[in-house]
Amino acid sequence: MTSSRIHPSAVIAADATLGAGVQVGAYAVIGAGVEIGDNTRIGAHCTIEGPTRIGRDNVFHGHAAIGGEPQDKKYRGERVELEIGDGNVIREFVTINRGTGDGGGITRIGHRNWILAYSHIAHDCRVGDDCVFSNNATLAGHVTVGNNVILSGFAGVHQFCRIGDHAFIGMGAFVNGDVPPFLMIAQEKYARPRGINAEGLKRRGFDGERIAAIKRAYRALYMGDAKLDEAKAELAEIASGSDDVRAFLDFIEAGERPLLR
Fold it and tell me: Measuring CA to CA, which residue among 182, 254, 168 is closest to residue 212?
């Protein structure tokens, strides 16, 4: 714990490992089997339970509860883990649980994500890089979220669903199927597609040609009367000239749950 700054009221397990420059605030609890990388800041009253590995340059704001046991009745105390990458911002009262033995044993969060207040990431989830979870966004168990995904406030995702890269989930949307890359999802009774996330793609450097191909793919899948197999055949044609549409089609082909359509 060389060069770390630890508040005297913090409780740190004897076998916890803290990198250089780590800061731990008042009344925080760092449990057994926790590893924290350089220059990470742990706010007041945070709880981090292990086994949990946290990378460098993360910020955990007050009262976050990280690495707790999975909320799964099948859990019987087996060794399960949480892994968090670098440069994430975890705001107040966020909860992130470890994995389950039957679900792969680990929950993984990537790099540079913003997880805002009261969000919940359940057991065995996989979250990529550069995502934003607005306040009260919730993932059930075994959800996979790609890169550059935005979940708006109070959005919820059903267990085992997948959210593809660059998708935008609108406020209060309840997602109960797989969401292909690039889509915008909005709420009716349940979440439904509402076009592609064109503005987000522009901000990330997608040019007009790439966006046009993605729009064609969206129309093929969502705006006609074609059955899914027919739509996939049209997507395959478009994918011959677009890596983005190829990723869109590959996502669909890999799914085990029904497609949100």
Answer: 182
**Exactly one of 31, 55, 103, 141 is catalytic; which is it?**
141
CA angle 131, 110, 44 (to 5 degrees): 85
| Beta bridge mates, 196 | 183
Task: Tell me, yes or no, if 123 is annotated catalytic.
Answer: yes
**Is 141 noted as a catalytic residue in this protein?**
yes
| Catalytic-labelled residue, pool 61, 111, 123, 158 | 123
What CATH number labels 202-253? Answer: 1.20.1180
Q: Is 102 a catalytic residue?
A: no
Q: Give the number of other CB atoms < 10 A from CB of residue 195.
A: 16
Fold for the domain defined by 5-142: UDP N-Acetylglucosamine Acyltransferase; domain 1 (2.160.10)
* Residues near 73 by beta carbon (within 8 Å), at least 6 away in sequence: none
Paired tokens of 156: 């919820």
- Per-residue tokens: 41: 């800041």
Catalytic residue among 72, 124, 129, 244: 124
Domain parsing of the chain, residue ranges: 5-142, 202-253
Q: What is the pLDDT of residues 94-127, one digit of tens each?
A: 999 999 999 999 999 999 999 999 999 999 999 9
